[in-house]
UniProtKB/TrEMBL annotation:
Superkingdom of this protein's organism: Bacteria
SUPFAM superfamilies in alphabetical order: alpha/beta-Hydrolases
Lineage of source species: Bacteria, Pseudomonadati, Pseudomonadota, Gammaproteobacteria, Lysobacterales
Organism annotation: Luteimonas gilva
Keyword terms, alphabetized: Hydrolase, Signal
UniProt protein name: Alpha/beta hydrolase
Amino acid sequence: MIRREFLMLFPAAAAVSLASRMAWAAGGDAAVWTPAEFHAARRFADLKQGKIAYVERGSGPVALFLHGYPLNGYQWRGPMAALAGERRCLAPDLMGLGYTDVAADADLSPEAQTAMVVALLDHLKIDDVDIVANDSSTGIAQLMAAYHPQRVRSMLLTNGDVDTNSPPAKLMPFLEKARRGEGRLWFDKSLADNAWARSRDAIGNAYHAPERLLTHELIETYFRPLVAPEKRRKQVEEYGLDMFPNPLLAVREQLRAFAKPVRMVWGRDDDLFPVETAYWLDRTFPGSRGVRVVENARLFFPEEYPELVIEEARKLWT
């Protein structure tokens, strides 16, 4: 099955409930958005790239939250709630994903996504940001640091694309199916059968305890905008295919010159993005604040363990 090739098996369920973690994450400062509240908060920026969806909450220096594939800005609801008292938290939906609407033939490559993010910051009159990124957006964050270092104050990077592992080797079987137009069927099946979506063959493999997180509402929030109209079905596949050629190999020297604070927080049980790649970043960035390895954590652990993101962000920003 497609997702068995996309992600590997997940470990046993965590002892602490997700509800408890999310309540802790909010820290009493603000409520974590429900899907309905996320939809109500959505705004759009009309850019040359298209109609870019984003949400924001809080005030102060801007923290830019960049989501993974195939998610959207709702991935960061926990950290945004907790950190809104100290940062203006901004979470856009990348092109081809979420609720952003771009032309059918839009360039969805990491370089194009980076240009869109910079255009959004210009549109919102934001000079610089603290970046928090996951999955493919960890690669986009590095391109921001390489090509627009003056716009980046710090980076908190979690499991994602690094150097030669972009796109990750274990994603290739899924991308081959996407090339044949078969990747979209995985999203159809996830929406039609939520129990399957939580399974080892589906997005559940990206979480330590998917049965606690992946509610019907959450699955709908992530996948419903990806299945219609037809251009969206194609774009959710093109997002992965447009990762070629790997853009990170060309920016090694720029990354070595980026001396601002960078911190890596990495889930150990993610076979797409192994911990060794986090240590490559640690050796590469002169301003690295080191690597924190998270046990019993997979690709999308920032959503499942928001308290870790909150803790590490506060330390980095201090």
